[in-house]
């Protein structure tokens, strides 16, 4: 049994880590912190955990030593505290954006702020298990990837590694409201947010930097563009990725690339069926699961390879992926705590 | 390990039983049958089960002997086959309406059809564990209650048993679309069904008969009325029950009644808080769980005790409750396989 | 042509009045005020009005004289300004709660605040046209009714006037998010508000006072109780009203009461059909319309008359009803500007 | 006043035409036909029209002569009847796909069926008013464009005409459920259709043919690809179009192209704002309107011009556009009957 604490546990990401760890057979939850809800029952903030835990939020200043610390703070916050936090835990998994980009300049360019703790950047391993399994097993510091980056990287990685596509990669991302966190604003106000198909970021999405960082080792001059549209859903993320296959590439070769890379991956499913309603990845049936579903279609009219990827942004895109990394770091079976299959219908 | 089969596993109820049993440590699934999908992968019908099972649907005629058989057929079907089915399994849990009502005449009155197997009626125990735990432990035949009846009975039982209310009991039920099963119709057609607040049954709901049957032992001349409204949700069921407290009854006595009956119930939570958004039961955070959440409020202006109950109609209202009964029948811990806490946000 | 201004035009109610008046052939919009958006284009706040108007918000301090002034402020605000506002306009229609209740004590009891302008209370006519048509024609001051009160009063009025029901009247109200206005809060935050069936007010709804005030002249000792549940919809309001018919009352007599009172009402439709999906009132097809649809069913098992009423809370429940009153006050045809039939499907 | 009939008026398109024409001051509706609902009240099928019309469906065989006939049949049907139908009306507007493509071979290639009435193909004018205003004024036969084609063509036309883009044009279309018509199927079954982000057609959308036909006169070798994703909405259509600007093209030139083509168009709005939630086109506020909203953003990281277009698929995408064409054909002001501004919030 390892002792784990969650630093910043009142948000949606922290709540999901807690939900997952509460049924994890190798983990004891030592503390969950919240400045705002310190002293209150966890289940008042996360009502799904009623009768599942009697935990009470600790104030961050009362943090005690633990084996592993999950840090779930808003972007730009964890780099303020990291030097201190690492004195409390041998291993840290940070879920924010602060340690995802290895180059300080890249971070500062995309996030428009100075990095306050650049010396730690090289210590963190980017936490996509499917790409960095061996490094994660050995590291003490993992940076949890962005949800949009996670599904895009996983969808593209085999194609780029196997040299199957060329030219511009266009990621048309369909996003849900939980991605923006739990702070209310006019943009999240139900009468304004309900029913939207909102082009909130036609270009300039910051996860582009992560995608380029992770896929660049396998390709020269990656040209990646994201357009993000917010939909009326709470959880879930689907990317429709428009790519151009290299001349002569066949569907068979695409299948082969995905199988080669992912056949043994416990959380990746290639979803491409001839019939049925769920022929391609569909985020609605992924809610609560750690799966990343990936499908594709060759466009026979316009020369195009359309790739479709789906995840639950709060699980495979955040908390589940982080627990998957934790399992690796401690040698637990990788699926531990992440077995929920998802619901149908939902 | 017991060997379990599901007779009629392509529907929503059968699919949920299968989902739950796939992670049940004491169960081996022997067969799942479907006339229509015989020979096909289960995951083509239940796409959430991809990578979770390689099961293939068997034709009902190929049913083999097993320890326990779940029967998940449309109302009016299982009574046609029961005489035969019981030669295949020592224990049977039937999820349809055919064996819920002990009196043949009551069944025929509410369902407007002749009962084809009345001699078996008295062998079935009505499957609400919280009311019939001891009988279920000993029986071989359980009739799974209707979802609307389940949440109504559980919400009302302590009040009636403790003699706290009088007069008419009005159940205003808010229903979801999965309750009607997987057969498409114009009433389930998305452009017509989306966004509705549809008074589809202002009176005459057949679950009334179950409620009266179960609560009558504790009260004379029960007067129960249901009005059912369909909402734009797939899973979930909330009842707002308008009752009249007897003279002088206080909130404290109501609390006491619920605590007396339910303090040790693993799947019932009394939800009644002073603050927060989830002060009362809310079906959206119950999706996938076996909880029945119950709350109440004394109306100080009009003399009224408003009781609010919520469940996931496919879990506590159908498949989860059935597995809970199975656990009892075999002496497994009652929560086995039913631990999922639900998601927030969702 | 009359000159009309809207005082407080950036909210949802003010925006709807503006939308309706922009196509009203007898009205010139003189000013629309907003403290916060003063100087900005109206269409930046109400994006549906792009290309429909070039109006710019005026600061409230720049209000000029006009023929009629709509006041659309949060509850408790208009009574602060009314003495001043009536120097600017011959006629005023106030949409808030401040002038709906004729008795100061009743207002103060339900709204838990002192009334700041009690001397004006008796000057205001309660603005349900169907009950107060003659008074509205003659008055200079109209108080726009609450949305929940509007649909409840209209649904119940014929039954009570014709002496058809007795005992407790239970209004189970299904509410939408626009009713709470445009101020974001955690309770309106999309991840928390989406998908809810939220019992936010099982008892104690303040519109009870309006209902009792308006129906008391026709009945002794009215016992009215409201339970309000918030749903995942932006517009629309449905009430399921559970009443007890007096002994011997038949469906025919109920029909007769509704026909007697409403046969000539342009905005009331009795919706009670034998077949089809829209047999009873359904708020989704009322979006944007000024209709109040009313239906009913006799419960033949439990002695009950279930009445179902539906409106668009922002139109018949607020802005449309106010324009209907304005039409009466100026002798315009009552339907003017309110002809939109609603959409199907939607 | 012209006498208009609708042939096939029980579907969603026919219902919308009827809704619009009922408030059109220059039109008398002579007949609305339906084989299935012949003899029944129109309002039983289109419940929004209760109290708006007493029309009864005629059987198609009872069709009488009229001035203009709208034909709203499923694809492949109107070409069976056209030879006969044109003996009944001087002018015909056909809403199906049968007469949209001028080349018989192109039709047969995309629709995988033989054209039964190819000799009429050249008589029909493609009904996008903004591109074919002069021809529509003079023609007797208009083919109503597909909804997806309409918004795509309108979004792209100025860019292509002004020679601003090059290379592949990728249309990522977000679709609603009403597009599939009123026939229930498992894919439209609420539990399966609710909440989806369904990649139902990653390539091969038949509207591609219309887009190429209409834009080819302005460009060589158009390379157009559509990927269509179905969302959980009933009405509305948004396209995110990923294009590559020619070298050196500036945002200013894009603005100029749109202004040049559309500044005087009554139903096109360029929506591109610096702030606010509705900075770009948003289909939810277009419900019921005939607007096509178009916006764009230059991607400064990846060389891209992202164009966003939104319509109500049943109005500007079908019925409204058809009435707009009718207005032109008879010299009525183009906006007549199409003034509804849309609702906010909704």
From TrEMBL, chains A, B, C, D:
- What is the native source organism of this protein? Candidatus Roizmanbacteria bacterium CG22_combo_CG10-13_8_21_14_all_34_12
A biological process (GO) of this protein is: L-arginine biosynthetic process
Keywords, comma-separated and alphabetical: Amino-acid biosynthesis, Cytoplasm, Lysine biosynthesis, NADP, Oxidoreductase
Which InterPro entries does this chain map to? AGPR (IPR050085), AGPR_dimerisation_dom (IPR058924), AGPR_type-1 (IPR000706), LysY (IPR037535), NAD(P)-bd_dom_sf (IPR036291), Semialdehyde_DH_NAD-bd (IPR000534)
What name does UniProt use for this protein? N-acetyl-gamma-glutamyl-phosphate reductase
Which Pfam families does the record associate with it? Answer: Semialdhyde_dh, Semialdhyde_dhC_1
Where does the signal sequence lie? none
Q: Where's the Semialdehyde dehydrogenase NAD-binding domain?
A: 3-139
Q: Species lineage, top-down?
A: Bacteria, Candidatus Roizmaniibacteriota
